[in-house]
Amino acid sequence: MMKRVTVFFSLLLLASFAWADQTKQDVDQRLENSTKVLQEIMNTPDKGIPEDALQAAKCIAIVPHMIKGGLGFGAEHGRGVVTCRTASGWSAPAFMSISGGSWGLQIGVEGIDLVMLFMDKQGAEELLSSKFQVGGDASASAGPVGRHASAGTDWKMDTKILTYSRSKGIFAGLTLNGARVVPDDDSMNVFYGKNVTTKSVLAGRVTAPSPARQFDAEISRATTTAAAAER
After folding, report:
1. Long-range contacts of range 12-16, CB-CB < 8 Å, 24 or more positions apart?
2. Is the model more confident about 230 or about 158?
3. What's the CA angle centered on 198, arms 226 and 121, to 5 degrees?
4. CA 30 to chain centre
5. What are 97-154's pLDDT values in tens digits?
6. Most distant pair of Cα atoms in the chain: their distance
7. Is 11 left (phi over 0), alpha (psi -120 to 50) or beta?
């Protein structure tokens, strides 16, 4: 009984951290952590995201250390970074939050790194809206893993979002239906100042501040490497 109570309050505490007011240091650290997640994934291509999936993605979202856990039911809470393709390359990063739940017999709390690939125009447009539900407004599925793992699969026709997770060094596809994604206005205001919207950033109408340069460079490197491998 004591163990269950401890897990329950741990989950509440971690969730409160996820939704706490953000400082400039918090937001910069999230950009740095997201960059590191992508770097580590790209450094292990045989166990990571297939090149053709990266090359086809219209938007890429990374949520470092998303909290997952539960006591009788599961829950997810996290804040992340997202960028979309524009006519002149990848957009400056925008900030989003994600939350959701799933019923199941589970006890425990863990942090995972989440990666979401938005694969078509409709999925990207859903991301530009004020909020949407994964699997409800846009179909999602666990993404294939490995350099050429997507060969022979039907994700190109049927899936708007591919989702991945990494926990304890293991990278795998993740089923995330039911999670809600909304703009993280608190972080946007901290990073860009007031009156800069998620939509304007992802549409390429906002220049990335200097703290975002490393993240932007890593996104470009990852997708350029994927494009070269596909030739």
Report:
1. 14/67, 14/69, 14/77, 14/109, 15/67, 15/75, 15/77
2. 158
3. 50
4. 12
5. 888 755 444 444 467 788 889 888 777 777 767 667 776 555 666 666 776 655 455 5
6. 58
7. alpha
